[in-house]
Amino acid sequence: xxxxxxxxxxxxxxxxxxxxxxxxxxxxxxxxxxxxxxxxxxxxxxxxxxxxxxxxxxxxxxxxxxxxxxxxxxxxxxxxxxxxxxxxxxxxxxxxxxxxxxxxxxxxxxxxxxxxxxxxxxxxxxxxxxxxxxxxxxxxxxxxxxxxxxxxxxxx
Length: 156
Ligand code: HEM
What we know:
Layout lengths: L12 H14 L14 H4 L4 H18 L12 H15 L11 H5 L6 H17 L4 H11 L3 H4 L2
The chain binds protoporphyrin IX containing FE.
């Protein structure tokens, strides 16, 4: 017997679609990106949530690329891609629930001859971007402290 479905109330279809759209739009972002685990919004709250963290990171990348001390390292780098990977990484180290999908720090910086002074210049740009974003000092210190151990993988 062919499967028969109840007739659709066609007139209500556009209304139902609109309602579904509104629900989707109003639902808080639970995933950073498709394929990413759910976010821990509480861990990211001091950073303006995932969105705030992403905006701060974009400003940070902008500073780094314009910095006369280290900008040359980034001249062939696609800023949007770097900012997206850094946002994932920052979110992950802050316990925000993201999965970092980029290269290891050793792999990403191998052969670049990044010196301690370069590292310090980048750290200053990060702090300036966080201050500009209005992050409290303790939250700034937390992110810096979680990135600091990566120095030995990056600095040659
Ligand atoms: C704690 C400090 C740092 C962190 C957390 C960090 C993180 C990252 C990340 C996540 C990537 C992307 C990796 C990928 O492409 O998969 C990257 C790439 C890169 N980093 Fe760093 N980095 C740091 C320090 C530095 C410093 C001090 C410099 C130079 C002054 C630098 C220069 C670069 C460049 C040029 C790339 C692009 C490489 C490419 O696209 O091939 N990084 N970094």
